[in-house]
Structures are given as C-alpha cells and as structure tokens.
Amino acid sequence: MKKEMNTIKFEIYPSEESNDHQVRIIIDNSDFLGNDHLGIDPPSFFAQRNLFEAGELLIGRCTCGCEGCDDYSVNVFLQEDTIIWSNSNGLTLEFNKSEYDNAISTAKKDYSWEDNNRRVERYVFDLLRRTKTKDEYTFDWASARIKENFITLSYSRHNEQRLVRDQKLFEIEWDGKSVESGVVSAEKFVETLN
Q1: Of residues 77, 83, 92, 100, the one with CA closest to residue 7
Q2: Where are the beta strands (DSSP E) in the chain?
Q3: How far apart (Å, rounded) are the C-alpha atoms in residues 142 and 129?
Q4: What's the start-to-end Cα distance of the chain, in Å?
Q5: Which of 75, 124, 144, 186 could join 117 via S-S bond, C-beta 3.0 to 4.6 A?
Q6: Which pTM was predicted?
Q7: Which phi and psi angles does 184 have, rounded to 5°?
Q8: d(CA 11, CA 22)
Q9: Angle at the Cα of 7 from the Cα atoms of 6 and 10, rounded to 5 degrees
C-alpha cells in the first residue's frame, strides 16, 4: 500500500522576539515547528534556493531570534512527482510536488502581512540587491525597523566560504510613511556608489 502524502502550507506571523516576522510551516494541519523554534523571516525563507532544489533547507531558528544559534534544517530530495524532507533524526516527509510548489508560490506572493516598514524594505532590497560599494562590499539587507525614519543598509565582504568577513552599515532617511520616499532615498544612495 502506497504511503499517503503529507500536506504543507505556510503562514506568516509577527515575531516580537526578533523584531521581524516568521514563516510557520503547517504540515498535516499542525504547526511543524511547535514551540521549539521560530520560523525564518519571510524574505530569507523564500530566497532559499533549496526550497526547489536538493540540499539543506533552513526552516527554523532559535527562539532568541538568531539564525545560527539553534537552527532547524531539513534535507530536501527531489523525485519526479515528490519532494522529500528528511533529517538525521529519522524524519521523512513526502509532499506532492505540484501541491508543494503551489503552497510556496502562494505564500511567497502574499504580502498581506507586511506593514509599511516591511514593504519599503522589500522595495529597497529589490532596488539594491546587486549593488556594490566602490571598495567591493556587496549589499545584504535593508531594515526600516532599526531607527525611526531611517532605512539601515548592510553591505559586507565575504571570504571564500561565503562567511561575512567585514560589514558596513549605511543609513538613508525617508519619511517613514510612503514607499516612494524610501525608494527615492535608495535611488539617491545608488548614485553615490558610482
């Protein structure tokens, strides 16, 4: 008898512990991470290539909010019509590939959870994603949640293992209300990079 496939969906909630949001993974109608882990912040979670490719996928972080502290990862395996999540503790979850892809696509395109700060962060991130400073620091992230009416920009240099070697933070001012104000400030910042 063939094993019944697991079901999966993604829900996004605020995370006060980490001043961001978290993707909660619902498997077979239950919160998979429970109280042991926070979910990953949506932009970081949905940017992972291994959602759709074989390899290690980060699905949970420490309840302190830091990635790298008490991470929860699964290994993703691809078969023709099936996605498998497993780990060294004996976990094996099997998802119908088209249902899995649809659940990710639906959640990834849902921005209803965003407040104004998170919305401007997304737009500024998209604008700066491939930028570098004159001294070869590459753009990492933008946050409008650190200081009121400012967007903090992180640029860093990495070593051969892609670990952060050095980081620079920049602040750009915006009105704290309109996405357009944040985008205009980011566009002016880009002009200083050339």
Answers
A1: 100
A2: 8-15, 20-27, 30-31, 38-39, 55-61, 72-78, 82-86, 92-96, 138-143, 150-158, 164-173
A3: 10
A4: 63
A5: 144
A6: 0.84
A7: -60, -45
A8: 8
A9: 135
